[in-house]
Amino acid sequence: MPIFFIFASILLCAYGCSQEKRAVIPKNANIFENAATLTLNIPEQEWKEASPGISYRYFHIATDNENNSKDFFVVRVNPKKYVFEIYQNHNQKSALTIKEIHQSTNSLLTFNGGFFTEEFKPTGLLISNGQIIRTSSTASLLNGIFAISATGTPHLFTNKTTINEHLYPFAIQNGPVLIDGQGKISITKDTGNSASRTAIGIDKNNNVVLIILKQSLLDPTNSITLYNFAHILKEASAFKDLNLRGVLNLDGGASTGLMVEDKYFPELDRVQNAIIVKARQQ
Description:
Elements: E1 2-3, H1 6-13, H2 19-22, E2 38-41, E3 48-51, E4 54-63, E5 70-77, E6 82-88, H3 98-104, E7 109-112, E8 116-117, E9 126-128, E10 131-134, E11 144-148, E12 154-158, E13 170-174, E14 177-179, E15 197-202, E16 208-213, H4 226-235, H5 237-242, E17 245-249, E18 258-260, E19 263-265, E20 273-279
Parallel strand pairs: 1-8
Antiparallel strand pairs: 2-4, 3-4, 4-5, 5-16, 6-20, 7-18, 7-20, 9-10, 9-13, 11-12, 11-13, 14-17, 15-16, 15-17, 18-19
């Protein structure tokens, strides 16, 4: 989503604003008060294989009010078999949708990436195919860097950790970190700001796991705060089986979008950068 006041937010960070308040919500996103405590009740679902090493499933999480239940879509990727790349839209007027990017690049999985400015420029580190597209930012909003090594090992770095950018053919910087590299929840305060969410993380088998909570025009209530999002990823029974660690929040709200196989969750706004997944060359 366009971050119209990202630079103002960076300045405000020096004055102690919370991470979640600094996460910019698009103008057309619905903001809801956090009125209910989630009861993490997830019915059994089956993983479906899209390609060997790529599988997906739905998670339905009921709250104390079934009308306020949350629906997640999760994709699990073996990075030993697949590479991750960045696709950039350089002009908002001519920007391709996630579906168009998916089809034109022959991607097996395509989803929205990181924050970008009103001028349609990325705000944090982006590395694709070993090329540094955008250097890292010191903004405290962008407190995580998700990177994958040349051998297919995923890592999460924080801004306080030095990353050798030349060692990673893929990296994306965004924030906030939801779950740190030791598997601990990093969000300590609930501001009540809800939106659609996209996150990328690492499971117990070193798979890359993508999670989206998709808000749509037909279901604008399928939104969540970052605090509750982090707790669900850590504590809900189905997610707990994945033993997620190193989970980074990506752009959300109207930017939330994904396509795998024939499953397309359309974004409401065009995005500046998207992540595409292709088979690793042997």
